[in-house]
Design goal:
Radius of gyration: 17 Å
CATH topology of the largest domain: GMP Synthetase, Chain A, domain 3
Order of helices and strands: EEEHEEHHE
Strand content: 25-35%
Helix content: 25-40%
Distance between the termini: 45 Å
CATH architecture of the largest domain: 2-Layer Sandwich
CATH class of the largest domain: Alpha Beta
Number of domains: 2
Amino acid sequence: MAATSTVRYLGGLRTECAHLRSGAVIRTDAPVDNHGKGEAFSPTDLFATSLAACAMTIMGIYGEGHDIDVTGMTAEVQKTMSQEPPRRVAAIDVTITMPDREYSDRARRSLEQAALTCPVHKSLHPDIKQNIILKWAK
């Protein structure tokens, strides 16, 4: 199996992550509450943001297969770190705002279920509280 990515430590609590297939690059920085400058996503920010991106991707796959347009949905992510050692993500709240379109009750239920079947959601440790909320315009 081929590698997915490479990560290079740049010093100063920063990394450069390269996706091998596409060449896309993401830099990370330690958060300000953990010795960093907070000038880029922290690794735990990416971790939490991955839940939203994955849920939306699975919703998009479902939508494309069922003629449901979800183009333009947006998400807000809130990551909560544990106050108790060890340092870890305790909760991830994702609020997905759907585009201002009419969606049937069946489509709504199916899209909500699709969000909860994403691989990131299914891969996270059960101790991490995951709250995925869909907000409907209509």
